[in-house]
Amino acid sequence: MDDKIAYLNANSSWKLPKPLGKVELPGFPVAALPNAIKDYVCAVGEQLRQSVDMPASAALAALSICVKGAYRIKGGDGWYEPLNLYSVIVADSGERKSALIALMTQPIIDFEREQEKRMLPIVRKSRLVQKGLERDVEKLQFAEEKIKGDQNQWKK
């Protein structure tokens, strides 16, 4: 890595940025989360042996899926934006990012599967009703054409 930086420094008119130095960041305010979410975030952090920062950020992203499209924020007169949260979790390899995302999204996936099972009979019935109505429309269109044809014969 140092070779790449040295090469870039020697072959670029840009100067290297000054390092920011060590910055102490505050911890994630887990106490601000609702109890059920806070407990889940803490349990996931403990299970994956992570600080709560990563699970809490992932939880907020997962929760934003639940309200997507349901709410809008007024940005000004006549200006509204959807309530969305775009989140990226950046960590070194082996930091259990995939396991974290799986744990945070599993309740959503489970809910979607339950809803699909619940709705399947309703959707099937609706499709059958739709097909029946489409057949009725075809019959009525055929009858209309027949009536128009009969009226044209009477005019002759």
Describe the structure.
The protein is 62% helix and 6% strand. With 156 residues, the protein is mainly alpha-helical. It has one domain. A two-stranded antiparallel sheet has the order 1-2. The longest helix is centred in the C-terminal third of the chain and has 59 residues, at 97-155. The termini are far apart.
Report low-confidence residues grouped into runs of 5 or more. Answer: none
Tally of separate domains:
1
- State the end-to-end CA separation: 93 Å
- Provide the β-strand percentage band: 5-15%
**Overall spatial form:** elongated
Query: What is the H-and-E element order?
Result: HHHEEH
Strand order of the largest sheet: 1-2
Number of helices: 4
Category by helix and strand content:
mainly alpha
Largest sheet: 2 strands, antiparallel
Determine the fraction of residues in helical runs and give it as a percent range.
Answer: 55-70%
